[in-house]
Amino acid sequence: MKIIGLIGGISWVSTADYYRLINQGINKQLGGLEFAECLIYSFNYGDIKRNNDSNDWDKTFQMLSKAALHLQDSGASAIILCANTMHNIADRLQAVIQIPLIHIATVTAAAIEKSGCRKVALLGTKFTMELDFFRSKLFAGGIEVLIPGEEDRAFIHQTIFDELGKGIVTAETKARYLTIIRELIAKGADSVILGCTELPLVVLPEDVNVPLFDTTQLHAQAAIDFALG
C-alpha cells in the first residue's frame, strides 16, 4: 500500500472527513483491520484565511510547499490538498515536488464526463467560483460551468468561512443554498458541483433532483485508488 500525504487544517472539519473516507474506503476493499497508511500536515486555518484576505498566494504557496516537501521526505507517495481553494497553487506545487499531486478538479471533471452531464453549477469559495484553476479543468473536458450571481457568491464565501469551516450548519443557511441551486438549475444546470470540501455538510444528495458531485468524496476515492493501485 502506498502512503498518502494529506495537507489539511483547511479546514480541520473537512480534513477529518478525508481521513474517515480514505480509511473506510481502504477497509471496504481490504477488510479485516486493514486501513490507510497516511501522513497528515495540518495547518492553522487562521493563517491560511489571513493570506486569503490579503490575496497573498505566494505566502500560501511557501507554506504548502514546505508541507508537501516534508510529507514527501517522510515517505508519502502522493499529495492530497484537503481543500478545493488551495488548488489555486496546485500546479506550482506540483512543479517543486517529485511525487504526484492528485488534483481535485481533474478528478471531478473525469467523474462529470463519465456521467454524461455537460452543464454544471459550481459552488465553492469565491476563489473556486471566480478563478480559472478549477473551471479550466472542466472546460478542457467540454463541460459548461454556471456560477451564482455576485450577491450569492458573497453569501456562499462568507458562510464557508464563518459557519461551515467551524462545523456550524443552520436551517437558514441550508435554505439559502438550496434556493441558489434551484435558480441555477432553472438556468439550465444539469448537475451541481460541491466545490468546497465543507459543502457536503449543508447540501445532501436528497436535497436536489440533479446529480450532485461531492468533490471531497471524489478526491478521497482517488486517494484510495492510488494507494491500492
Q: What name does CATH use for the topology of the largest domain?
A: Rossmann fold
| Unreliable residue runs | none
What's the tally of helices? 10
Described by the principal axes of the CA atoms, the overall outline is: globular
- The structural domain count equals 2
Output the helix-strand order. EHEHHEHHEHHEHHEEH
Radius of gyration: 17 Å
Strand composition percent: 5-15%
Structure notes:
Helices cover 52% and strands 13% of the residues. The chain is of the alpha/beta class and 229 residues long. The chain is built from ten helices and seven strands. Helix 1 packs across helix 10, helix 5 packs parallel to helix 7 and helix 5 packs across helix 10. The strands form two sheets. The protein has a four-stranded parallel β-sheet, sandwiched between helices. The chain has a three-stranded parallel β-sheet with strand order 2-1-3, with helices on both faces. The chain has two domains: 4-103 and 217-228, Rossmann fold, CATH 3.40.50; 105-214, Rossmann fold (3-Layer(aba) Sandwich), CATH 3.40.50. The protein has helices spanning 12-30, 45-53, 57-73, 90-94, 104-115, 126-130, 132-140, 150-162, 171-186, 215-228; strands spanning 4-8, 38-42, 78-81, 119-123, 144-146, 191-194, 212-214. The chain starts with a strand and ends with a helix.
Which descriptors would you attach to this protein?
2 domains; four-stranded parallel β-sheet; Rossmann fold; 229 residues; three-stranded parallel β-sheet; single chain; alpha/beta; 10 helices
